[in-house]
Amino acid sequence: MRKRKPTHPGAILREDVLPELNMSVSAFSRSLGVSRQTLHAVLAERSGISPEMALRLDALLGNGAQLWVDMQTKFDLWQAEAKLHDVLQRMQRIAVDHAAA
Fold first, then answer.
1. What is the C-alpha separation between 59 and 64, in angstroms, rounded?
2. How far apart are CA 77 and CA 19, in angstroms?
3. How far is CA 43 from CA 6, 49, 58, 95, in A?
4. Angle between helices 51-61 and 65-90 in degrees, nearest 10
5. Angle at which helices 36-43 and 25-32 cross, to 10°
6. Phi/psi zone of residue 45: left (φ > 0), alpha (ψ -120 to 50 degrees), beta?
7. What is the rounded CA–CA span in Å between residue 38 and residue 10?
8. Which residues fall within 8 angstroms of residue 43, CB to CB, at 6 or more apart?
């Protein structure tokens, strides 16, 4: 498990993108075609970047939907691994015979 938690993509939007664009949350949400509340939940890191939101961000910012999906996946996997750490440590890997499959 990585020691440092990956940055939530909402934090990148909040700390880097919006200030660089000099846009308010309301203006940015209108540009994305989502409600201010929807965007605010992402910026506050209460919601993740959905594939639909990633496509909207790509269309607006031009940096690729996959970038946003990958950031969210890394964040989600880190969270899940931290939550399941003890359970995962106790599990025994099952050897699979690939020749028989």
1. 8
2. 28
3. 15, 10, 17, 43
4. 150
5. 110
6. left
7. 11
8. 10, 13, 14, 18, 25
In this prediction the pTM is 0.85
Calpha distance 35→62 (Å, rounded): 21
- pLDDT by residue, tens only, the chain of 101 residues: 567 899 999 999 999 999 999 999 999 999 999 999 999 999 999 999 999 999 999 999 999 999 999 999 999 999 999 999 888 888 888 988 777 65
SS (H, E, C) 25-69: HHHHHHHHCCCHHHHHHHHCCCCCCCHHHHHHHHHHHCCCHHHHH
